[in-house]
Amino acid sequence: MVLKDELFNKDTVNRMAIEINKVEETFNNELFVLEAVSSFPNLELKERMSALRVLLKKHLPDEYLVVLDIFKSVSENNKSGGFVYGAFLEYIECYGCNDNYVDKSLEALSHLTKLFSAEFAIREYLNNYPIKTLACVMKWSLSDNEHIRRLASEGTRPKLPWAKGIRVDYNEGAKALDNLYFDKSRYVTRSTANHLNDISKINPEFVLMTLKRWIKSGKQNDSEMKYIINHSLRTLIKKGHKETLEFLGFKSNPDIKLTKFDINKNILNINDKLTISVEIKSKEDVKLVVDYIVLYPSKTKKMNSKTYKLKSKHIKCGEVLAFDFNKQFKDYSTRKMNEGEHKILIQINGSIYAERSFQLKLK
User: How high is the pLDDT of residue 235?
Assistant: First the structure.
């Protein structure tokens, strides 16, 4: 089943509608479901959520605060949540971000994030009421509820996927992370690490300084701190950022030699696999992180790059690290192949050691 149909269908909408009707008897749940499901066929996932929000506005009372109370009552009676409840959060985003309701709306967002994350809806409030919203974020970072603590991190991420941009300085959004990095919940620490990974694309030095400070505090156990470090730095590692690799114990100029780097074809057809053979000999005991970079030609003939992880290993003096791997070149939903010269580069501890070229043919 297609994801949008799995998340937004007659059954999921009907469950939500019945729960609303239990709280608000004037709510015509059968008509609501009929109108919702009738609108779905031509709508994508996010559009279906917005369609539900519009129908909630149509079928619920006109008084905004009354609607908030209905939503909160539904939340208290619901333990499972789901994507359809994103319409509740979108309702608050669209109709409650104003001087009359901002305080009640922010309170409702923290309450309803247990049903469906308020990470998208809160961004409207960060843009229009930054001081008030950031004060709530700091309070939420100390909540007893892991969903609310996660919201304090996820909602303020500088580059949250599929979300509208925020005008809040990343330094301000990151302050709550100082309350979250030693959280006991992976649900929260994963968001904290993702938040730092976002910042790493803006200011790598800020991220490294923050991680060093957190390590020094000793508040998080070693295993979870290692997870946070690796997840926070994954983009910088792929980029071969020297300071990051040195921070992780990877020497900038290891005494090694790339003794083999072969590809099995010089001409490749679309959907074919390319076999790459690599052999590295070390003249010292050293930690290596080995990646490969593919340079893809665009329609404008500009080369786009993507880095893929290969190996991370501590090898001894005289040891040879040898391996083969396959890379298939096919169309993806996020990338369409273009005909022409492609390149494969081997990156070791952030430095490029060699490259090979091949031609890709689409027919």
Answer: 95
Neighbours of 198 (CB within 10 A): 21
| CA separation for the pair 234, 255 (Å, rounded) | 24
Sheet of 303-315: strand order equals: 267-269, 351-361, 340-348, 286-297, 303-315
Rounded CA gap, 14 and 229, in Å?
43
Residues 6+ apart with CB under 8 A from 244: 204, 208, 233, 236, 237
**pLDDT number for residue 300:** 84
Q: DSSP string covering 213-264, please?
A: HHHHHT-S-HHHHHHHHHHHTHHHHHHT-HHHHHHTT--SS-SEEEEEEEES
Identify the structural domains of the chain with CATH numbers, from first to last. Answer: 3-247 (1.25.40.290), 256-361 (2.60.40.10)
Identify the pLDDT of residue 63: 98
- Classify the C-alpha dihedral 217-246-232-226 as positive or negative: negative
- Cα separation, 361 vs 208, in Å, equals 43
Q: What is the pLDDT of residue 124?
A: 98
pLDDT score recorded for residue 79: 77
Amino acid occupying residue 125: Y
**Alpha-carbon separation of residue 226 from 193, 230, 232 (angstroms):** 11, 6, 10
Q: Using 50 as the pLDDT threshold, list the residues of the chain that sit under it.
A: none
Summarize the chain as % helix, strand, coil (round to 5): 45, 20, 30
Q: What is the pLDDT of residue 188?
A: 98
Residue 246 token pair: 């040195």
Q: How many C-beta atoms lie closer than 10 Å to residue 299's C-beta?
A: 7
